[in-house]
Every structure is written in C-alpha cells, then in structure tokens.
Write a structure and sequence with these properties.
The protein has 210 residues and is an alpha/beta fold. The protein has eight helices and eleven strands. Strand 7 (113-117), helix 4 and strand 8 (134-138) form a beta-alpha-beta unit.
C-alpha cells in the first residue's frame, strides 16, 4: 500500500476529486470526519492529511511515499523529492505586491526594503538576484495587513484572482513565478516501489485529461 500525503485546505477537495477520477477514491469523506489517515476504497493507498507546508517533509523523509502540494511549497522547502507530474490544479501566482501609490516606483538601492511574507526563501532569492537589500518579515497569515499598518513596504504572497489585494488597496508589482499542484514522490519509494509508483503516475496523468 502506498501512503500519500494530501494538503489540507484549498487544494484538498480538487486533489481528492482527481484521485477519484484516477480510480483511487477515499473510503470516507475527510470533510465529515476528523480522521487524518484514510484508506482508499480499493485498499491500494492510504491518505494522510497534513498542513500544506508539511507535505514535502513527510515525503522527503519517507513517512509518505508520495504527496500533493503546490509548487510554491516546493520552492520554499527545497525538499529532495521527485516531481513527476504537474496536476494542473490550484493555479495561482507568487507575486510582489504593495500599496497602489508605490506601484511603478523604483527601489532605492541604498535603502533596505522591508518585505512581509510566508515565503522567506523565495522572497530572499528574488530580491537578492536583483541586488535589492531587504529585511524579510516572516508572517504566517493576513500578510496583506503588513503594508497597510506600516509593518512592511512590500509583501510576497500567493495571488489567485487578486480580489483580496484589491479590497485592501494593494496591487501586484511583479510576478515571481506561477504555481500549481504537483505530485511528488519519495526518492527511495521511487525505486523500491517502482511498479506501484509508476502505476500511480500513469493513472494520475490520465485523469488530468479526463
């Protein structure tokens, strides 16, 4: 049996629906239960439901053979895992945003820019590659408040429709990269359970186009 780590939250329902189209259906709805470990109806897999940021850790350390998480989480974690499939779910952008009045302004290269974010690694890489000195302010949520309250000059966050930004007087300044859900696989499991993993990849790949 394969153990698959599933991101709780915004990707969960679409991910389970895609697995169901691939013939791997959970035997109980996690939305009506507090169970965090659920088997598939065919006994082929078991699903573990964890926070999105923890999925790469569970897979990298072999607690889960495979998992589903956003590309944003992978870029931030730098986890050593295989990434065989883009599942085409949960499209969004990782973007730099700020108050409307600062959009279009050049960065003062002599000053340190304060950037609030849930993605300190991605943020540091982006600004350092451009030679812009920054102070990263890590936040776990409600990042849009930071520039409104003077905590930061900019934010780096996931942007879907952009509605939350607009309602808080913010606009996208630059898009760092795009993100969708990815199927990831533990490196050891990729070899030790090659037949099961290959079947999983093939079934999921076929389900994407249905």
């Amino acid at each position: 049996m394969l153990t698959i780590a599933i991101s709780k939250g915004r990707l969960q329902d679409d991910t389970l629906a895609l697995f169901a189209r691939a013939g791997i259906e959970a035997d109980d709805s996690p939305l009506s239960s507090r169970r965090l470990l659920i088997k598939s109806k065919d006994g082929r897999c078991s699903f573990v439901f964890v926070k999105p940021a923890d999925v790469p850790t569970y897979v990298e350390y072999g607690v889960a053979d495979a998992g589903v998480c956003g590309r944003d989480v992978l870029l931030e974690s730098h986890a050593e895992v295989h990434e065989p499939l883009d599942l085409k779910l949960g499209f969004c952008r990782i973007a730099v945003a700020g108050r409307r009045e600062v959009v279009g302004q050049d960065y003062n290269l002599l000053a340190t820019v304060r950037v609030a974010t849930k993605y300190p690694r991605i943020t540091a890489d982006y600004f350092h590659q451009r030679g812009i000195p920054i102070e990263v302010i890590p936040l776990s949520g409600s990042v849009e408040l930071a520039p409104l309250l003077g905590l930061s000059d900019r934010i780096v966050d996931l942007v879907g429709t952009g509605r939350t930004l607009r309602e808080n007087g913010l606009e996208v300044i630059d898009v760092i990269t795009e993100s969708t859900a990815r199927l990831i696989v533990n490196r050891a499991s990729f070899h030790l359970k090659r037949e099961e993993i290959s079947r999983l990849i093939a079934d999921m790949g076929a389900a994407i186009n249905r």
